[in-house]
Specification:
Elements lengths: L4 E10 L8 E8 L4 E5 L6 H9 L6 E10 L2 E2 L5 H7 L4 E4 L3 H4 L6 H13 L3 H14 L16 H13 L5 E5 L7 H18 L2 E6 L2 H7 L2 E6 L2 E7 H6 L4 H8 L26
Parallel strand pairs: 3-8, 3-9, 6-7, 7-8
Antiparallel strand pairs: 1-2, 1-4, 4-5, 9-10
Length: 279
């Protein structure tokens, strides 16, 4: 199957210190209808990698090497206007914290409808009808279109973000820790919703997480990142059942068992003393 997104040797550095690599030679790909989970601790470069795909890196950061190919085209070659046509239309993104991503003074109906107007030209009754369909698709009653973000629960706000990201039926969806700060029941509902939408729309999905429980539930492939580098990558069965890299093994050792009998174990960084450990 043809690759939808292919990242090749991606390197990101501060503009003021180009020798300092925040993301170093990262490579992986995603196929239509497949979910790739990028796993790692905070600061491992997961979100920077995702933001580089969307062309949303801050001006203080630069891509010094590599390519981000979407349907075979390097997104770095596109103008700002060309990238705007892709962002939200062909590639959707669910950001980590919905309360800071949603505008508090605009209704959720308006915010879901904005990409439909910008990219598809929908207006009036057609726009309202599509917004209502999207709300119901993510499990929110259509009459809540007139609600403001602070009138919704955390889980409902996350569902609004999902509705916005899939509004234009993108080919690719990036979800940056979409279940952060949600309780376990709501997490399961959000993950199930994303997985069902991915399947029904045949989207490729890049899901960023630090939770191997999430990986086990939804991933087809896994990319493990540490200090801005990919240390291990493979199918979910390979990585979870037969991890090769010490860091992957250390992360898996931190996962509590379902019955709560296994003592919690901090990550063991002893392997770092041997820099020659193969990835």
């Amino acid at each position: 199957m043809a690759e939808l997104l292919k990242i090749e040797d991606l390197t990101i550095c501060p503009a003021s210190a180009p020798s300092r690599k925040l993301v170093s030679n990262v490579s992986f790909s995603i196929e239509p209808g497949k979910t790739t989970c990028v796993v790692g601790e905070s600061g491992s470069g997961k979100s920077l990698t995702a933001l580089s795909v969307m062309g949303l890196l801050s001006k203080q950061l630069v891509r010094t090497n590599g390519r981000v190919l979407f349907q075979g085209q390097d997104l770095a070659d596109l103008s700002t206007e060309e990238m705007r046509k892709i962002r939200g239309r062909q590639i959707g993104m669910i950001f980590q914290e919905p309360m800071t991503s949603l505008n508090p003074v605009l209704t959720i109906g308006f915010q879901i409808g904005e990409p439909l107007t910008v990219h598809l030209g929908l207006k009036g009754d057609a726009l309202k009808a599509k917004v209502n369909v999207l709300l119901e698709q993510v499990g929110i009653p259509a009459h809540r279109a007139n609600s403001y973000p602070d009138e919704l629960s955390g889980g409902q706000r996350q569902r609004v973000m999902i509705a916005m990201s899939i509004a234009c039926e993108p080919l690719m969806l990036i979800a940056d820790e979409p279940t952060t700060a949600l309780d376990v029941t709501v997490q399961a509902q959000i993950l199930s919703l994303l997985d069902n939408l991915k399947t029904s729309m045949n989207m490729g999905m890049l899901l960023i997480t630090h939770d191997f429980g999430v990986v086990a539930d939804v991933a087809d492939d896994v990319v493990v990142m540490f200090r801005g580098e990919v240390v291990e990558a493979g199918s979910v069965a390979q990585v979870l059942n037969k991890p090769k890299h010490p860091y992957t093994k250390a992360l898996l050792a931190c996962v509590p068992d379902a019955e709560g009998k296994k003592p919690l174990k901090p990550i063991d960084y002893a392997w770092l003393k041997n820099e020659q450990v193969p990835a």
